[in-house]
Amino acid sequence: MCGRRPAIILLSVALVLGSLILYAAFQLGDICPEGGGRCTWAGAMNTLDYLRGKGSNGEGEPKEGDVTSAPAVGTATADKPVDPSCHGFPDMSNILLVMKTGASEAYSKIPTQMLTNLRCVSESNFLIFSDMAQSIAGQEIIDTLETVIPEVKEHQDFELYHNQVACPIDQETCNKGINVAKQGWALDKYKNIHMAEKAYARNPGFDWYLYVDADTYVVWSTLVEWLSRVDAKQKIYMGSVAMLGGFPFAHGGSGYLVSQGMMAAMFDGKENVANRFDQNATGLCCGDALFSMALKEETDVSVQNVWPTVNGEKPNTLSYEDSQWCQPLVTMHHIGSEEVSDFYEWECSRNYTQPVRIKDLYHQFIKPHLDDTRAEWDNLSDDIRYADRDADGIDSTDDKYRFDNLSEVEQEAHDSATNCRAACLELEECMQWRFHRNVCYMGRKIRHGNPIIPGDGDGEKMVSGWHKARIAAWAKEHEDCGEIQWPNVRTSN
Ligand SMILES: *[C@@H]1O[C@H](CO)[C@@H](O)[C@H](O)[C@H]1NC(C)=O
Ligand SMILES: *[C@@H]1O[C@H](CO)[C@@H](O)[C@H](O)[C@H]1NC(C)=O
Ligand SMILES: *[C@@H]1O[C@H](CO)[C@@H](O)[C@H](O)[C@H]1NC(C)=O
Ligand SMILES: CC(=O)N[C@H]1CO[C@H](CO)[C@@H](O)[C@@H]1O
Known about the structure:
Transmembrane segments: 7-26
CATH class of the domain at 95-305: Alpha Beta
CATH topology of the domain at 95-305: Spore Coat Polysaccharide Biosynthesis Protein SpsA, Chain A
Number of strands: 19
Low-confidence stretches: 1-18, 20-36, 45-80
Bound molecules: 2-acetamido-2-deoxy-beta-D-glucopyranose
Strand order of the largest sheet: 3-4-2-1-5-10-7-11
Structural class: alpha+beta
Pfam family, one: Fringe
Protein name: N-acetylgalactosaminide beta-1,3-galactosyltransferase
EC number: 2.4.1.122
Strand content: 5-15%
GO molecular function, one term: glycoprotein-N-acetylgalactosamine 3-beta-galactosyltransferase activity
């Protein structure tokens, strides 16, 4: 029962929380105005019909390969009123999301995904695979490694796999003192092909199979609009291309898309396809690369690059520049739970109506946070460098350095953060700057970056800053992007 209707569990918890919040708000005489907070749990809970609908209607188990019966979540039906926070959610009933995680991280990643990015996705439109069978608040987590051939399971890479099953209490406690990151990574590469084979065996009827990690964010509005323009009957495998020893593959964390035509070519009429590659995985770093090699070997189809639409970065690490600014965005990676929640609330507030472009992230998540100067921050500026040519550790052959024909301000740029900033103000191409250990770095692109660890190294702090006026002027000038240019997808191989 619990496994079949995870929504009930989540919603029961939410109902209690929601009631408490509403009660508290009522006590304070401070009930939100109608529609306010629609994208929060409390807001959604305002609609009692919605609760009743989701909690009691028997939509039933999805039948195998039964795609057409999956209702579009954004659409209310007579017996299933719509979750108000899913208002406008696109019809993704021809897409199956296949999410990969591991037992050591599942409880920290999956609940937030379920509450936010997967919230409006129908149960019949996603599967979650891991290195152990689990149930998270009723959501089935499938052991994708169950079918790996027994000899390969004897490999030391499977140490964590066997330990996890043997653990009689929670994994977190059992894993104390174990390097879970390292052991989890060793296991991970065995998953991808098995996961695809199992997803297709359970659900062979979808047009598109989108493979992501548990720290990937999917922008549904962009994805659905884009895929409606691509013929899924063709053999298509696409993502953000990376290389392994010269072999191109779609980076797994960014997410990759495989068409119906491609899945059929890989698995139809064959048995135990994934097992053919179990042995290969032992000698390789990564499962996403092996997946690409396996596709190539079985079908002779190669990966297509659709970066930056499928993207491994996130708002604070993306580069806001000409070549990416107007591009539509479908995925981001390394997204923590707090960030997933922020994006979800933002997309919900836009009613999922417009495809998201990279520039939208700048406006929503970057622009409000740029400062003239920020200490202990790495803003990733590194297009031009100023330094003392003879100082220790300066590789004067690196052509990022400017030593000659400098203005007075440029000559002094490496003396202090204040001077570095002054040089940025003077140099027209400078959007932002960074000062560290008597090197002044300047950036021509807009990037936000990360805090540095305080007290790192010998105590010399890194300081960053942005030329806010110049950035604002650039953004304004580039605001008009015209029609969306979708990635070019080859439909014949
Ligand atoms: C897997 O290993 C077999 C045997 O060594 C080899 O023939 C095959 O090309 C390998 N396949 C991949 C995808 O690495
Ligand atoms: C989203 O939909 C709600 C409810 O229909 C509406 O009030 C709101 O103005 C819409 N917002 C946007 C950004 O379209
Ligand atoms: C510096 O200026 C001189 C004279 O204008 C020019 O010949 C030289 O190429 C310049 N050097 C650099 C590195 O720009
Ligand atoms: C992404 C990036 O360029 N990071 C750099 C930030 O600055 C530090 C210190 O100069 C470099 O070590 C990083 O590579």
